[in-house]
Structures are given as structure tokens and as C-alpha cells.
Design brief:
With about 200 residues, the chain is α/β, with parallel strands linked by helices. It has one domain (about 20-195): Rossmann fold. It has helices at about 5-15, 35-45, 80-95, 165-185, 185-195; strands at about 20-25, 50-55, 60-65, 70-75, 105-120, 120-135, 140-155. Strands 1, 2, 3, 4, 5, 6 and 7 form a seven-stranded mixed sheet that branches. Helix 3 (about 80-95) packs parallel to helix 4. The longest helix is centred in the last third of the chain and has 20 residues, at about 165-185.
Length: about 200
């Protein structure tokens, strides 16, 4: 094989394989705000006890951004997004905690799976969470799994912004989790017991 044909073969191989890139997607805090309907539904069942949010998740998660020739890596700040969205939901459903340490409930949100797949035009996001409500003193009241998936067209810059699919899935999971807690007989009984104190 001549040098020219080898160079042509190598360049064709490189063009087919493409070059991968790494993108760091920025969080848009306003995107974690609940809709008016979501807030109203949670406020209708608001409890007069404080609750804090404890997110157990790496601060940086990795997703995939696939183009025709390449598969790129994108980092997104899932821990911050979960903290913001779940805090918005919890503070619509419970009182905000003050300086108390033992007299507040804790909603623990632990991530088991987070999968972000993007193309130039759309994003699919799946999250699987383990949710635990603990009464003051760290006694477990209720634990359950919450899994959500959404497929949404990309509106912003795919290389710089976290796609809307992530925010929508996280907000849906937060609202769904709070609705489950507020309809669970054991949780209702425990919350009412602390409201009377």
C-alpha cells in the first residue's frame, strides 16, 4: 500500500470515527420553579411542620450528546437541580425549616439512576430515586421509589445549557413524591402528631 493510500485510509477512518468533545452544561435555576398548578396542588395540602431536603447524589453527572459522527460527553449539575426542585416542592407542602435541628422532618432524595441522552434536536431523560421521609430524630416514616422519563425537543443551546427534559422530569418526580407522602396514611398520622406539638 502506498503512503498516499495509507494517508487517505487514515483520514477516512478519522472522519468516520469523528472527534469526541466534552461539554459542561449550565444550570438555569429559574427552570426548577414549579408551575402555578403544581404549587397550588401542594399548597392545598400544606402541613404546619418544617421539613428540610437532603439530596444524596454526585454533584456532577455525565450524559451523552450524540451527533451523526460523534458521541460526546456532557456534564450536568444534577445535585443542584434536585436540591432546587425538591426544595421548591417541599416548601410548598411543608414549612421552611429554621434553626431547629431535631424538630424538622427530613426528605431524603437518593439517586439510583440518572440517564441523559441528547441529540441536536431532542433530549431523553430518565431518573430513578429512592425517597425517604424521616420524622424529627431520624425515624423513618415512609420510603418509596420514584422513576420518571421524559422526551422533549431541545430549545436552548445543546452544548451549554441543561436541557428542559431534565428540569421537567425532576419537577414531576418532586411533585409526585410529595403527593405520595401527603396521601400515605402513616405519613399523614405522623405529620399530624407533630403539628399538635
Amino acid at each position: 500500500m502506498s503512503i498516499l493510500s495509507r494517508l487517505f485510509f487514515a483520514s477516512a477512518l478519522l472522519a468516520c470515527a469523528g472527534c469526541s468533545s466534552v461539554y459542561h452544561l449550565a444550570n438555569q435555576p429559574n427552570s426548577t420553579e414549579l408551575s402555578q398548578a403544581q404549587k397550588a396542588a401542594l399548597l392545598a395540602k400544606k402541613s404546619a411542620v418544617p421539613c428540610r431536603v437532603d439530596v444524596i447524589c454526585p454533584s456532577d453527572m455525565v450524559g451523552k450528546y450524540n451527533t451523526f459522527f460523534t458521541s460526546n460527553v456532557c456534564h450536568y449539575p444534577l445535585e443542584k437541580i434536585l436540591e432546587q426542585a425538591f426544595s421548591n416542592a417541599v416548601y410548598s407542602s411543608f414549612e421552611q425549616p429554621g434553626g431547629e435541628i431535631l424538630d424538622a422532618f427530613t426528605l431524603k432524595v437518593e439517586v439510583y439512576k440518572s440517564q441523559l441522552l441528547m441529540s441536536k434536536t431532542d433530549a431523553t431523560y430518565t431518573i430513578s430515586l429512592n425517597i425517604t421521609l424521616e420524622e424529627p430524630g431520624e425515624k423513618k416514616v415512609i420510603t418509596f421509589n420514584e422513576e420518571k422519563t421524559n422526551f422533549i425537543p431541545i430549545k436552548g443551546n445543546v452544548k451549554t445549557e441543561v436541557p428542559e427534559a431534565v428540569y421537567e422530569v425532576v419537577k414531576e418526580a418532586a411533585v409526585s413524591a410529595l403527593n405520595k407522602i401527603k396521601t400515605d396514611p402513616k405519613a399523614i398520622k405522623t405529620i399530624k402528631r407533630f403539628e399538635k406539638k
